[in-house]
Amino acid sequence: MMGRSLSLATLLVAVAILLGRLTGLFRVLGLASVLGVSHANDLAILVISVPDILNAMLIGGAMAAVLVPEMHRRSQNISEQNANQLIVQSFFVVAIVSSLFALTLAICSSWFTEILAFGFTSSQINEANKLIMIVLLAFPISAVTAVTAAALQGHHKPTIPAYGNLFFNVILLVAIFFWVSPENINVIAWAVVVAVSFRLLTQIIRCFMAGVFNGGFQSLTRFSTLKRSLLLKYFHALTAIGVVVAFPVVSRSFASAFEGGISLFEYALKLVEFPRGLLGAALTMVIFPRISHVFSEGNLAEATKLISHAAGLILLVTIPVTVAVYGCAEPVVSLLFQRGLFSALDVINTAKLLQIAIISMPALILSILTMNVFYARHETVLPFKISIISLSCLILLSLAVRDSMGVSGLMFAFVITSWFHFLALTISLQVKLNVSVIDGVKIKHCAALILLTLFGISFSAMMVKFVLEPVLLIAYSLILGLVCFGAVLLILKNHLPRFHRRLF
Hints:
Involved in peptidoglycan biosynthesis. Transports lipid-linked peptidoglycan precursors from the inner to the outer leaflet of the cytoplasmic membrane. This protein is mainly alpha-helical.
């Protein structure tokens, strides 16, 4: 019964996330058509990303990682009302703290802009400051949305939060196609404020309907519910997740030293983000609350099944997609982007970055799963340490390659860091908590999956050189991806029978 409800919830969330990612892709395509690869587009991308970057680094993922397990613990050991009081008090505290933080950033906006795009000139930074001052209004709104989203996830009502990106992107799409031009970028900033406000409104309404706030407003001014140990866990989870979110932010900041570098980096990563976001958000919104609930009941065997099922699904999807996209990167980028101000040279440059970036996709999604397992077991210190080490590696690698390899080198540094981060998390999870990401798959089987991926990428690279017709290249890449799908399924069928039975 639990497996059926999990599958249904995952399907509903997957549909919502798919629509959100599709509209996000359309948003990027709209910017590419209207603004091309230009400084104006760099500004637009910077403005759109600021609230979500701040939310993800300072509030978002850490809020769910800490609140969801704590809600389940209090509901079982204390009362449902106590869990609801935790949500309401967290909402108001986050609103106050994030507003003060946004005010501080507004006062220090020049410094903040230099961090996000240190390659900008002084005049470009002054231009960006005006837009960032507007968009900072969206940060407190986006921050409290993280609380309502975590509350709904904890109550196994993830659908409305999953539609949040769809609401956000639709509003931005309207602004882009009707009002945005190279001379009128400030419309984007105000559209972001409107979009995050609407997203919050939908979640608050759903929280009242689901009874999330029932009894939560009693003893509102008594903050004994927010204990010091909980705040410490939040700080650790905040830093660990925030640092991971900072990976592409740091890389984009290095890329700002090159004309149109932010745009090229964003276009390539957006295509990687599409499948990553679809699976990653489903893991966070559906799998994580259930893993947390099962761990709180002490049912380690069932938790291991859920983790293995999720990891197997990730491998089954990401390895074939990685191989297929590597082969047909240029025709796909041309089909999606080459219109308006987006030139043929921009297609070539974006495709090269996409071929590098797609190699990071399995690691990026598996890292989400491993971090969720840590947080479901109330372990926040180790992911925090690993994330700090990984970010340091990214900065050092980026500094080492930016002059000799340019934007491509920065993307290589991003890929290497992503894999290092995942492997460090996986090994630590096994050693510290004795939890295997894929139960039943031995080292030799993992080696077979790695060799399969490397062979598929190598074959794709050779295919690109000999197949010049774009349609044929896409067709051959899809066929190669299907072959890899079958090979991965065969390995999982032979060595992870539980996954196979649950899949079918």
